[in-house]
């Protein structure tokens, strides 16, 4: 199967999302928002109270990441920016997808609530290489601003300007396909075959 490569610019449209399939590669340009647990929880509380968010969710890309950063001459500089485990955001993510988020980036995949929201509201989840926090740095051209710093550096919202941020592997798409589940099922089938061979011998 030939892997398709896509270059996406934020804000991302439904039409662009519908072209993405599991196993496709994406390189992202534009704004990328880093949000973790506490920022997700606060964002939903703001929306519940009908308060304005400091970011625009329409067509947005969210990176599950708590970057390591230093401030030099009044400007923030990222030292490392690897993905964190996405499943921690499972209680929140479907609600942000409903509000317009189009691309989620992290590691490890997400659950059924997120998968259903991806399908219903036309969005996708992409995996970024874990354990390689220096790889994204060359694609992050600027820290445009930081919001909610009172949550702490890792939990704040980081608004990043990125160019060819990737490769992002689409592992959950808007058709309801889940590469993690496919691989798990294949592994289970192979395991049963191994057991059969062991029983024979």
Which key terms come to mind for this protein?
5-stranded mixed beta barrel; alpha/beta; 201 residues; fumarase; single chain; two-stranded antiparallel sheet; 29% helix
Describe the model.
By secondary structure, the protein is of the alpha/beta class. It has 5 helices and 9 strands; from the N terminus they run E-H-E-H-E-E-E-H-E-H-E-E-E-H. Helix 2 crosses helix 3 and helix 3 runs parallel beside helix 4. It is globular. It starts with a strand and ends with a helix. The mean pLDDT is 92.
Topology:
Blueprint: E1 5-9, H1 14-18, E2 25-34, H2 37-48, E3 61-63, E4 68-72, E5 75-80, H3 90-98, E6 103-106, H4 112-121, E7 124-127, E8 140-147, E9 157-172, H5 179-200
Parallel strand pairs: 1-2, 2-3, 3-6, 6-7
Antiparallel strand pairs: 2-9, 4-5, 7-9, 8-9
Helix pairs in contact: 2-3, 3-4
In order across it, which strands form the biggest sheet? 2-3-6-7-9
Total domain units: 1
List segments where confidence is low: pLDDT < 50 over at least 5 consecutive residues: none
Secondary structure: number of strands: 9
SSE string, helix = H, strand = E? EHEHEEEHEHEEEH
Name the CATH class: Alpha Beta
Based on Cα principal axes, name the global outline.
Answer: globular
CATH-wise, what's the superfamily? Answer: Fe-S hydro-lyase, tartrate dehydratase beta-type, catalytic domain
- Mean pLDDT, all residues: 92
Helix content: 25-40%
Distance between the termini: 35 Å
CATH topology: fumarase
What portion of the residues fall into strands of 2 or more residues?
25-35%
Number of helices: 5
The CATH architecture term is: Alpha-Beta Barrel
Oligomer: single chain
Question: How large, in whole angstroms, is the Cα Rg?
Answer: 18 Å
Largest sheet, if any?
5 strands, mixed, barrel
Give the class from helix and strand content and strand pairing. Answer: alpha/beta
């Amino acid at each position: 199967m030939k892997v398709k490569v896509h270059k996406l610019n934020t804000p991302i449209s439904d039409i662009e999302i519908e072209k993405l399939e599991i196993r496709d590669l994406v390189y992202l340009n534009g704004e990328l928002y880093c949000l973790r647990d506490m920022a997700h929880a606060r964002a939903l509380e703001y929306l519940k109270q009908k308060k304005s968010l400091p970011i625009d969710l329409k067509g947005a890309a969210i990176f599950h990441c708590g970057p390591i950063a230093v401030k030099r001459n009044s400007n923030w500089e990222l030292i490392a920016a690897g993905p964190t485990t996405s499943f921690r955001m499972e209680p929140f993510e479907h609600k942000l997808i409903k509000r317009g988020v189009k691309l989620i980036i992290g590691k490890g995949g997400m659950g059924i609530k997120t998968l259903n929201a991806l399908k219903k509201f036309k969005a996708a989840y992409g995996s970024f290489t874990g354990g390689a926090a220096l790889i994204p740095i060359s694609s992050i051209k600027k820290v445009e601003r930081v919001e909610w710093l009172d949550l702490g550096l890792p939990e704040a919202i980081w608004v990043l300007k990125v160019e060819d941020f990737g490769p992002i592997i689409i592992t959950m798409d808007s058709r309801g396909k889940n590469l993690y589940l496919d691989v798990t099922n294949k592994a289970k089938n192979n395991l049963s075959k191994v057991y059969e061979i062991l029983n024979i011998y």
